[in-house]
Adenosine deaminase domain-containing protein
Amino acid sequence: MKGLFNYEKAFRLYTHHFLASLVDDKILYAEIRPNFMESNRLYRDDGSGPQDNATTMQILIDEVTRFCQSEAAAGRYFAGLKVIYCTPRSSTLEQAAKALDECFHFKQRWPHWIAGFDLVGEEARGRPLADFAPQLVAFSRRCAAHNIDIPLLLHCGETCQSGSPADHNLVDALALGARRIGHGFALTRHPVLLAAARAANICVELCPISNEVLGLTPRVASHAMYALLANGLHCAVSSDNAAFFASSLAHDFYQVLIGKADFDLLGWKQLALWSIQHSCIDFKSPDADALLRKWEEQWDEYISWLIDECGPRWLARQTQHG
């Protein structure tokens, strides 16, 4: 199916359905990770191309803008999304340097659409972060010199193998000043790194279903996230490859809830709030206030529904056993 979606018409339709699925899942705002790479470019419907990454980015912006306008016209609220520019960690150093340069120019061209930068793909098969350190340091310095904010939001620590290159990626992510860490599954084996991540106010993007499917944990109850939370680390829940795993963010949140007996609605609420607070939206803008207000409104509606739906049955059981 990948080749089919690399045609512009199919990609536009796919993007629309993706956005609709976010709304169905009660998601108000998202930061997505499209993979900008040579073998993942769009073709025109007549088969000509491929088109460059800037064209793909513009198509994405056009579709999101059109969808937001359609939702607003129907009286519904959707805050939109931002793009985390991603390139494969299997890239050569030259390819990575070109990707970082393109990400920088994308941010200049579309300042409100680019959220950050990441290197993606299976850590065991790709290069370790240390290989890209000179390019990433130069990129961060270039951004600072131009007063441009493109945080590093890095996949790392998605492994059960202590001492492996994927394990060491955690050290390099912290040294590089990553603002968020994707997966971070191995953090619990490194108390010093965990404390450093907490002190730096780093948020870990949890992907429980992905970690179960890929064998990092046999069941959600033994997932590392509960130890991370117990140690005061801020976390957010993500879907990783939702389409591939035929799941949604709601499924991941459900797994988080059922995996620990004393995990409750307050924990759910905190995870959702952290996902907003650690996002790359501009918190000085009115849009951020509107997003938080709408989220609180939806949360109150959910709690009211839960009380109406489950409250009578709960009271009946308490009376029966009382």
